[in-house]
Amino acid sequence: MNSQTLKSQTLKSISWRDTCPWLMLVQSIAIAVRGTVWGIAFIGLLLTPLVWNLSESIFLSDSEIIGSSLNPNEVNVQNDAGNEVVRKKIQRMSFWSDSADENWLANVTPLPVFFKFGSPHLALLDPALSIQQNCYYFFGLIGMLILWSLCGGMICRVAATHFTRDERTGPIQAFLFCSKRYVTFLLSGSVPLMVILVFTIPLFFIGILIRIDFMLLLVGFGWCLLLFIGFLMTLLLVPLFFGWSFLWPAIATENADPFEAVSRSFSYPYQKPFQFLFYLTVVLILGFLSSFIVTEIANKSISITQWGTSWGAGFDRVDEIAEIQRLPLDSNPTTTENDPVVATPSDQEIAPTKASYSKIQIFSVKMISFWEGAIRLLAQAFNYGFFFAASTGMYLLMRRDTDQTELDEIYLEALPTDEALPKLQSESLDSAPPAPSSSPASPGSTSESAANSESNSPKIDPPDSES
After folding, report:
1. What is the rounded (10 degree) CA torsion for 149, 402, 273, 241?
2. For residue 43, what are the contacts with CB-CB under 8 A and spacing of at least 6?
3. Top mean-pLDDT range of 78-92, 98-112, 387-401
4. Which of 157, 297, 412, 463 is the most buried (most CB within 10 A)?
5. Where does residue 22 rank: exposed (0-12), middle (13-18), buried (19+ CB within 10 A)?
6. What are phi and psi of 272, to 5 degrees?
7. Closest residue by Cα to residue 283 from 386, 378, 159
């Protein structure tokens, strides 16, 4: 009987969510291309360079940035004693990269997005940087966290509702959710920076003491304690470096506090390292393929537009537009302010200058460059949307593997009192019309009605006994 039952069973469907749960990461592409997520990522990416430019204008000079003078890696500055010392030059934090650059392939993955947030933390640990350079990274990182605590949190919330309940959360709902928990998002995202500050402050004061020879001798005997502090700092920062992308998904999914979010992002990669690496590999493959397609669409859109207009404008006009697009912001592109090399007269005759073109030509071409840059910026914004969406999916999978929590569990806010469901039972009883009933009977009416019924009822004579 059992064999006949087994033979009669047929497979009608497969629950891929239970069989291969990691396939849900494919939905990250669908989330990233949504207008809500793409728009939020575009706004965040548009404002991020403004934060770093402000920090650069306050703390850095042009000579401290790579590429601004003949020596690309070092700069001579004066120390406290007035002597010139060689300082390391730093790389400017750039977010708007031209996809036509020869290294554009390196930006066609979500991995650079990860390092855009992680590289400032690593730069703060570089002992070769000056105080001004550390301030540049510190305050630039603070500004970026202030901005992306809202933008990244909104994307994570949209992704969390999509993964768990297959719902489309709008930008207003995501904004209201994150605005109520903005401090939590900001504090959790600042935890790696706080760890660096907590361990650096005592080391800083000890560094002041070792300026004295006698204190240097004492610190030399207890240097092992300082090495232990460095070991603890490394022990905390390494897992946070790999798991910090789980901080905001934990808040968007669990409504967790900063301590719980940090605890989850710290423990998940350690407890399930192989699952973490597998999910990360899947995300990188999906991110490369999807970002490559988006970038190619953006580049081909620009090139086809240029190709189509070149038939009417002519190649000379197209070359002229290309030359104006390559013009630097200063009036003479052959020299820079800090460049000691003077361009030769022959170079000045060949190289184009702003004086060679009218203001209308320059303004018009700059508008063309603006719109082309906006298209490329949209393509780069896709990487940021995909990164936060995929991080939310990875968090749900790691939570399932570590805490045995179902994938569809998510924190939902309680409905307001005016939007709550009505109490159907109590309202139906109160509003129901009274059932029809006879007039209240007075005492003694029962017997009277009974007598009337007896009188009105037909009387049946008893049968004759003789018959």
Report:
1. 20
2. 151
3. 387-401
4. 157
5. middle
6. -130, 70
7. 386
Please state, rounded to an integer, the average pLDDT across all residues of the chain: 77
- The whole-angstrom separation of Cα 321 and Cα 306 is 10
The domain locations on the chain are 21-338+345-411
| One-letter amino acid for residue 284 of the chain | L
Beta bridge partners of 77: 85
Strands 84-88, 74-78: pairing kind: antiparallel
* Conformation bin of residue 257: beta by default, left when phi > 0, alpha when psi is -120 to 50: beta
Q: Characterize 178-201 residue by residue with b for buried, 16 or more Cβ atoms within 10 angstroms of its Cβ, and e for exposed.
A: beebeebbbbbbbbbbebbeebbe
pLDDT of residue 20: 80
CA distance 393 to 160: 8
The pLDDT of residue 89: 73
In whole angstroms, give the CA distance from residue 152 to residue 135: 24
Query: Tell me, what amino acid is at 201?
Result: I
Q: Is 224 helix (H, G, I), strand (E, B) or coil?
A: helix
CA dist., res. 146 & res. 122, Å (int)? 19
List the single range of 111-120, 159-168, 263-272 with lowest mean pLDDT: 111-120
Q: Can you list the pairs that 272-277 forms with residues at least 24 positions away whose Cβ atoms lie under 8 Å? A: 272/398, 272/401, 272/402, 275/397, 275/398, 275/401, 276/242, 276/394, 276/398
Q: How far is CA 101 from the centre of its chain?
A: 25
Residues in CB range of 385: below 8 A, 6 or more apart = 31, 32, 33, 37, 38, 40, 41, 155
**pLDDT value at 293 more than 60:** yes
Q: Are 325 and 367 in contact (CB under 8 A)?
A: no
Q: Tens digits of per-residue pLDDT, 200-239?
A: 888 888 888 888 888 888 888 888 888 888 888 888 888 7
How far is the C-alpha of 268 from the C-alpha of 248, rounded, in Å? 14
**Residue 395's pLDDT is what?**
94
Q: What's the token pair of residue 351?
A: 């190289």
